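Reopening: Outer membrane protein OmpA-like peptidoglycan-associated protein still failing for me.
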Amino acid sequence: MKSAAKGLTAILSIITLGITLGATLSLPAFAGDDGNSKNVTEDDIVRALAPPAKKPLTRGLSIAPQADPAPNAAETKLIQSVRGRSTRSLSSTEREEIASVAKDKPNIDLEITFDYNSANISAKSMPSVQALGRALTSPDLKGSTFVVAGHTDAAGGETYNQDLSERRADAIKRYLVDKYSISATDLVTVGYGKSKLKNPSQPMAEANRRVQVVNMENKTTASK
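Support: Ran it again with your exact input. Result attached.
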């Protein structure tokens, strides 16, 4: 009886230890409440950018419903008119038209940082850019046309921030084209400077310094 009691005590001790350890462990968050992905993965990006009908099923994660990205005639005309264009060639009207169409499309905000006062992608953000490259070449997304939009915080003048956001969007595009052989015409780069703050109540917040990626049309219509 004593031996059995000791064995039972040992088992209970192990169970208690396991519960205690389990209570002290925490899993990294997929994203903050503001929608910004910090430790973003390839799967995170695919889930966010896939057309609604093709959203991969994932336990434990909920993706907000988004409008069907199938473009109408006006959207298709706009997309075709800006594909292959340089970032600096876009007029302010075209930038606003792109923003208007993009707001209802599958998108994701990536917190990609750059070296100070430059368009060099920081080392700490490289994993996110690489995850983006893998995602855009995945079967679920490959062949779509994507907008890569650069945004800054409110520091500095409008002209300076506009130029900086364009150069940073271009840097992301060059990396994706060079490292992942994504067609340059499938990546429409646009800069918005500080004109579209994600967190207007805190204009200097890090959340405002972001790169937004938008799936403008799915691969069944991209080549039309």
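Residues 8-37, 59-65, 220-224 have pLDDT under 50 and may be disordered. If you still see a failure, please send the error message rather than a screenshot.
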